[in-house]
Amino acid sequence: MALNRARQVTPRSRQRWRPPTTTYTRRIDPIRNPYTPGAGSRPPALTGRDEEIEAFRILLARLKLGRPEKSMLITGLRGVGKTVLLNTFEAIAEEAGFRTAKSEITHETDFRPLIARLARRALLAVSPAKRMKERARRAAAVFKAFTLRTPEGLEIGVDVEAMLGRGDSGDLGDDLSDLFLALGEAAADHKTGIVFLLDEVQFLDRAELEALIAALHQVSQQELPLTLAGAGLPQLPALTGAAKSYAERLFRFPTIDRLAEQAARDALELPAQAEGVDFERAATGRILTLTEGYPYFLQEYGKHVWNVAPGPTITLADVKRAHDLVQLDLDESFFRVRIGRATKAELAYLAAMAHLGAGPYRSGEIAAKLGRPGPESVAPTRARLIEKGLIYSPSYGLNEFTVPQFDTFIRRSFAPEEPR
Ligand SMILES: Nc1ncnc2c1ncn2[C@@H]1O[C@H](COP(=O)(O)OP(=O)(O)O)[C@@H](O)[C@H]1O
Ligand SMILES: [Mg+2]
Fold first, then answer.
1. Measured by CB atoms within 10 angstroms of the end CB, which terminus of the chain is less buried, N or C?
2. pTM above 0.70, yes or no
3. Tell me, what's the pLDDT at 415?
């Protein structure tokens, strides 16, 4: 009896004794919000990428010893953390005493001037213009010859003549090889190495990628300390013949994707813990389900639940409260920007895909959904969507979005026939 009464009394008495909520100090401070949704934004906890980071460290260490090792072209969907990883590689390389030069390729990128800018930056980082040793001065001379073929001039501030006949033939592969070899020798002479970092590699056309690969192949044959790490969407241009076999010898193509469960949990919880805030297990679980472990979505959820949570912990109710805000932000900053440059026909193609359900999608089925006779009739639209980096082909005849959860975004934004 007494026990029973005690049981009944306890909750009420606890309620009575709880201080009014208004006297709680708010423990979740929006100023200290640690989450970082945004392209290339360094996350508060970089989780789930240890393998790639370790492989890159090994690559650098071996390069120093003049031992051959494959470099990396990281591929993956939008928002999985390719740029963040490339930036991490850059920091690791600098820390290991390498000189780096990084650039992002876009649709409009003019390749030769881009390479010239990277080469210039790398060479001047290897040695200031005034203190260049013989090999570096030679590289400056090759650089000058190389820039004779670029539309815009680029000064390097080294008093040497252009080395005519080196890097100025007009054949991209040959010229790039001359330039990279000269840079590699200069770096070795100055007891350092060069790491080029290229983001959005899928925007290179086939000839450009083949030229890069040919040049890197030459460099690796000479065991020079120069390498290139890249990142891009799943579909890099299909290489063939010699270029393909070189590429496979020169590069590994690790795919990064959504984070595995523990890594996703850590990405969300560790930054909060560092600020003294805990997630209820159910709250984390719900966010992992909604985000499917995609890094961009995790950061977006983290940011919003933090801001709406009254505290002291982050609860399932907070996740519900944040949901619409997350959706709104993602639509604006992550999804809608992708279709800004899409034409009506391209939008119709995307809508047809999305309204087929979950991918991947057969070209024939998409054409049928559009009421067109066959895949050939919409092939040009498909080709332009691939070129713009909105879709890719995971294997022959199949299509998939390059943005995770893009099908749901399109379905909630467009009716099947609307964008025609
Ligand atoms: N390993 C990771 N753990 C947690 N968050 C990450 C991780 N990698 C990236 N992010 C976050 O994901 C978002 C997208 O990263 P980004 O490098 O721009 O992706 P991508 O280049 O693949 O489109 C950023 O907000 C970043 O902070
Ligand atoms: Mg990126």
1. N
2. yes
3. 74
